[in-house]
Design brief:
By secondary structure, this protein is mainly beta. Helices cover 12% and strands 44% of the residues. The chain has two helices and eleven strands, in the order βββαβββββαβββ. The strands form two sheets. Strands 1, 2, 3, 5, 6, 8, 9, 10 and 11 form a nine-stranded mixed β-sheet that branches. A two-stranded antiparallel sheet has the order 4-7. The longest helix has 13 residues, at 37-49. The model has no long low-confidence stretch (mean pLDDT 92).
């Protein structure tokens, strides 16, 4: 995932229900083998928005684990603060809008993205890890860390 920032605004896309993860979200997607994680993020931004990001900073990792299924899903998060190009007139993943950072959390978005959103703009690098119990529909463990800012918080 790559948050694209232009001054006090960020670029978000409004994903329709049919695309999965409906609501406002930053550009992102899967990494194509054998490309690097960062090159995957740069490519996804270009494919989904038309922009070519230039200054890109690794901001952190958000992972979700479900032990019963043996599932681990990892999202590498980047912040791009410069770019070139023009927005696509017909973007493939949903409508693109520039929104003030301070107003973004008022938009409809997935809870996991809402939790992660402010971390793109804080100093340091974040790590979020959640262990999910699918059977009981609850989080059974989490680690939340912002390196260089606070201490590790582990909840069981």
């Amino acid at each position: 995932m790559c948050m694209v920032q232009d001054g006090t605004k960020v670029l978000l896309m409004n994903r329709p229900d049919k695309r999965g993860f409906p609501g406002y979200i930053a550009p992102g997607g899967k990494v194509d083998f054998p490309e690097s994680i960062v090159n995957g993020a740069i490519r996804e931004v270009r494919e989904e928005t038309g922009l070519i990001v230039k200054d890109i900073i690794y901001k952190g990792l958000d992972e979700f684990c479900e032990p019963e299924q043996g599932l681990r899903y990892m999202v590498f998060n980047y912040l791009a603060t410069s770019f070139e190009g023009e927005l696509l007139s017909n973007p493939p993943e949903g409508e693109l809008i520039w929104v003030e950072i301070e107003d973004a959390l008022e938009l409809p978005m997935q809870d996991w993205f809402k939790r992660r959103f402010p971390l793109f703009f804080e100093p340091g690098t974040f790590e979020l890890s959640f262990v999910w119990d699918e059977r009981n529909n609850e989080t059974i463990g989490q680690t939340i860390k912002n390196y260089g800012v606070d201490k590790v918080k582990i909840h069981n």
